[in-house]
Amino acid sequence: AACGLAAVFVFAALLGWMLARLGRVVAGLSDVCRRIADGDFEARIIGRSERGKIGVLHDTFNDMIDRCDAFVRESSAAMAAIRDDKYYRHILPQGLRGSLLIASRTINQAMQAIETRVAAFNANTSEFERAIETVIGTVSSASANMGTTAGSLSAGVSATRERTLAVSAAS
């Protein structure tokens, strides 16, 4: 009976130790999850000493965070480049999977579409500027011609006035 009681005690102690260990693992995961939910993608499970399935869980969890962190950093860099009218900085899709990969492709395609539209807008603006310069040149030339014509008319009026005065004085 003493042997059975000792075995139960050892089993209970082992079970308590395993539950405490599992509690530490869950507490660590919860802490990292909270930090990630707060936007801290630097959070990782560190100091891993677990083996087996718990160790695989740690590695997989950190890998998941790495991929999300990479997507956030890449998309932020790509959007900052767009803000500065630079369209060469696409999201690097290496290592991204699933929805992150689909989103990176969508953003890269959108970036290409924006670049195409901006280029077309700039071309249209340049064409408009050239057309306005032509109109301004034409109006300026017409204005100069009108000035010359006005000068000729003024000279004609002066000559006519002088003749009128001469005729009037002669009569």
Description:
The protein has 171 residues and is mainly α. Helices cover 82% and strands 0% of the residues. The protein has helices at 2-37, 52-83, 98-170. Helix 2 (52-83) runs parallel beside helix 3 (98-170). It is rod-shaped, with a radius of gyration of 42 Å. The protein starts with a helix and ends with a helix.
N/C terminus separation: 161 Å
**Poorly predicted tracts of residues:** none
How many beta-strand segments? Answer: 0
Mean pLDDT: 89
Shape estimate: rod-shaped
Supply the number of helical segments. 3
Order of helices and strands: HHH
Task: Classify the secondary structure makeup into a structural class.
Answer: mainly alpha
Largest sheet: none
Q: What level of helicity do the residues show?
A: over 70%
Strand content: under 5%
Radius of gyration: 42 Å
